[in-house]
Amino acid sequence: MTALAPYASDPARSRGRRVVEPPAPTRSEFQRDRDRIVHSSAFRRLVYKTQVFLNHEGDLFRTRLTHSLEVAQLGRSIARSLGLNEDLVEAVALAHDLGHTPFGHAGQDALDECLQGHGGFEHNLQSLRVVDRLEHRYPDWDGLNLCFETREGILKRCPLALAERLEAEEPGGVGQRFLLGRQPSLEAQLTNLADEIAYNAHDLDDGVRSGLLQLEQLQEVPLFARFAAEVDADHATLRVGEPRRFLAEVIRRMLSQQVYDVIDTTRAALAHAGVSSADEARQAPPLVSFGDEMKRASVELKRYLFRHLYRHPQVMATTEIGRTIVRELFAAYRAAPMELPPEHREGDPVRSVADYIAGMTDRFACREHRRLYARDLFAPAD
């Protein structure tokens, strides 16, 4: 790792863990967090959780696991250039989706509907709940007992009502910044933006691979069209002769330019703000960002993907089935709690059902639904 900038998060100055532990002899505190996340059950389950295309739709589409790895790679690359803490960026990146339900955002929306009147469901808060409570790996505490800085980065968003509840449970903890209107660490800000860069690029790639998006129609997207023209100029026959290589090269150039833009814009923002410590960075406005032109281009790409991929009838049809499975699983477990594993019959009965469903992979949720309802919603119609 390169030398840390003065505004980077220093593991030697961490605000610590909720349960005090002796330091590790060979690893920093953020390295320990990363390692605990990688060895968690929730992390392994990400391999069978949907990004856009459901797990059974193809072996080459991204999953929550591969997405998290791509976010970590992009985040570390940018962090190194800015002198930020790469290990903290990697830990937050690998943990940021641990609370995602099966079937992507459709599953989250369905579970949120089921929990109206019971606090609702939000995947960022669920990711924090996973690392704070739901992992059972240690004899003396629940959760992974991660550092404050890692937990802070995992909680990307938090409505004020939930922040107030978190502050009551943990005064001065990860909910406080939402009440004070402050920012998370620069590493957390960076991971949030790396997340956006990663999913825009790989959803574009998966959309073309699936056949739902065509190279020709992507000319409507200014960011894509700009780099497609560059690739055409450098490799005149590639688009027609080897379209997969053509797409990969366009996306590679898009990613590189976005990374360079973030580095240049953030360096300028840091210099202008004059921050000299991690705490000063938290009290400043957001400092890790795109420049104005790239921000507009990223928003245009996101809007295009929303209209033409996320709202494509084929995607909507499969995610609606996922939504139905989550709703019906919730109803079945609420009506017959004995169908739950013994460890999920304790505590708040509604939240315990939500925790169990949120932890499921796509394929396990389908299997459980077939077991409880004796029908396969993904089976081809006769």
From TrEMBL:
Pfam families: HD, HD_assoc. Residues 64-200 form the HD domain. Residues 1-28 are annotated as: Disordered. Belongs to the dGTPase family. Type 2 subfamily. It comes from the Bacteria. One of its GO terms (biological process) is dGTP catabolic process. CDD domains: HDc. PROSITE patterns: HD. Keywords: Hydrolase. Gene3D superfamilies: Hypothetical protein af1432. SMART domains: HDc. The keyword Hydrolase applies. GO terms for molecular function: dGTPase activity. This is Deoxyguanosinetriphosphate triphosphohydrolase-like protein. Coiled coil: none annotated.
